């Protein structure tokens, strides 16, 4: 006879309740969303969410202080339950009321207490709709576990339409997870002959023993999240009340929509059909809208959000947009909406359990993903174009801009140039002419025009954090072409001078002589040799230098203020500064016949540190200090102690290192290359239409 054995069984561990409740619904807003959806599916005309914000806040504060006190008294090596798992007093509760159809004891047993019940499959005759014809939002049958995301105890009191009594059940999280499995668990129940205060029908959910951590969100944040989940519901059909205040979508002043910006109102939607794999089509409606310049959206609100059956199915996303495209920063104002009921009508489930995203990689949705990505890209370009066209008029009518222009007696040509500068700057600033970056930078640009120092003014833009900075600078340079034309002759002359200097430095006699005095004089008079961008820098020994730099040079005993009797000081150090760029450069020169070594770099860092300390002490903390050590680099195979140490420091230097060690020949080669680049830019501008 064969041996009889027990059949194999599929078991469900109790922690599934934790995974689908406590771990899935981690904020109060997400929990409440599930109960709002249940009320909607029950054909309730409204849902009321009630909780005392002050009581919760005070209870959390008491709990936190108790935890900190316990922690302070805990002996070393011992642990206490973490704060986030602790619960508030039993009398602090959250109550959700609706006036829907309600549930009988049988309904509670066979429907509500059946986790994972697929209502639409079990009631095919309803065609996925409620008794009053609403498209059902629930699909997975897991929303009933949401309460465990914020509470240890979930009570349900429900009175079915036509019944005089109500049924009261209690689900205790700790009791459930203590079971060996959750195939069947006995639930506490009570029959309330008086109807439980519910008339004539409806359901009340009571959440108690509330968890500390999920209750940290502000009331306004909770309202905002709930409103976004149900943005497409008509308040006349279903009203959401929270603490006696109606939850409504946050008002957004929409100023542009794509496609068809001129042919239909901004609030209208465009219908789209896409072929689906295997035949047939999918249908959805969409519109990519934008808010005004001073109404940029939070990062989590940008992109397109997808709704199915009037409930959020995918949180706002930029999908596959190219972040390097022109006009990408317009996404700061993008509020796209897609209605795609077909997603929730499919037999397969394409919506993530947390309703944050869709299975975009699936054959059904991949085409829609590509289409929406391309639409958002085009919408950004068109909105950027619209704003660019409006920019000149905005600038011309701006009081701040006009007040800055009036400070200078501009010629007609220079005034037009200033307005064009202002227009380009306005386009690059998120908040238009009201942007702090605009109001901080425009005066410097205009001043540069007024003093014939356009290139210096443009160089200040390097300190700005603007998305389109590269384009802005190139356009400004194009506008400053006249000044560049005058600069070409100077650049060519410098290139000829650099060729002559290279011949001197490459000659053996150069490294055999102590000629640092001549070298210092050369660099002091031609600061562009150190770096071409220092053309407009001021030199510490110059009598026209700002008093701040004079005082700094005197206090540090740099350049002409150095003490000739002090043998400890490096022999040749001078200071470069640019007040508009908030930049200080310390240059240390060594004699051509003295190979550079690690101690020389230490000297430079010493001066850089002293300079930064001096600036901090004199309320100049915004300045950045850089350093250049210039001399004769040791040979690559030198094993001298100082040479090896210097090579190690150089190899470990990173992109953020503020000092450079350069050979005389390296300096000239770099400068020659930079000046040649200037000529190439000029030639390209000459050829441009």
Automatic annotation (TrEMBL):
InterPro entries from the UniProt entry: HATPase_C_sf
Name under which the protein is recorded: ATP-binding protein
Swiss-Prot/TrEMBL keywords: ATP-binding, Nucleotide-binding
Upper taxonomic lineage: Bacteria, Pseudomonadati, Planctomycetota, Planctomycetia, Isosphaerales
Pfam family of the protein (one): HATPase_c_3
Single annotated GO MF: ATP binding
Organism: Paludisphaera mucosa
